[in-house]
């Protein structure tokens, strides 16, 4: 059984929900990633901010990224997967919720992220095709 921990990109970082969107974008730049998990005051996952969120919900709305807090861009219930979950569970979680990035949690701490690129390296062609169909082609 291949686990989430085996296919994830290790060393993911998160920001506090009170950190600014500017800080989030700088961390994305420094880490060369397109999404940053957001943690509450108890270091629990409370959301994820993507580069698209920053562009559409902050910049395009004329908000000041140096004043706008990360929590203002987070929506919905954040999805995550346990580090020991089977890769099939990872695939189903991402397909069922139509998400392209999935935080990996171990002992209540963020240990990594799984992206489409990680899936592409570890799944069969049929599994990748199923993922693409479910996430991109399926109607809302």
From TrEMBL:
Indicate the segments forming the CBS domain, all copies: 8-65, 73-130
Q: What is the lineage of its organism?
A: Bacteria, Bacillati, Actinomycetota, Actinomycetes, Kitasatosporales
The answer to whether keyword Secreted applies is no
| Name this protein carries in UniProt | CBS domain-containing protein
Q: Which Pfam families match?
A: CBS
The record's section on SUPFAM superfamilies has:
CBS-domain pair
- Key words, A-Z: CBS domain
Domain of life where this protein originates? Bacteria
Cited InterPro entries: CBS_dom, CBS_dom_sf, Diverse_CBS-Domain
Tell me yes or no: is Ribosomal protein among this UniProt entry's keywords. Answer: no
């Amino acid at each position: 059984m291949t686990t989430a921990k085996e296919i994830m990109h290790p060393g993911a970082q998160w920001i506090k929900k009170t950190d600014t969107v500017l800080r989030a974008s700088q961390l994305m730049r420094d880490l060369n990633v397109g999404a940053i998990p957001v943690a509450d005051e108890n270091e629990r996952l409370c959301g994820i901010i993507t580069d698209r969120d920053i562009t559409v919900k902050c910049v395009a709305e004329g908000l000041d990224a140096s004043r706008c807090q990360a929590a203002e861009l987070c929506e919905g219930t954040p999805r995550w997967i346990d580090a020991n979950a089977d890769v099939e569970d990872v695939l189903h979680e991402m397909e069922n919720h139509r998400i392209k990035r999935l935080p990996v949690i171990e002992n209540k701490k963020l240990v990594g992220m799984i992206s489409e690129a990680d899936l592409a390296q570890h799944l069969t062609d049929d599994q990748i095709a199923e993922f693409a169909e479910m996430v991109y082609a399926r109607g809302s």
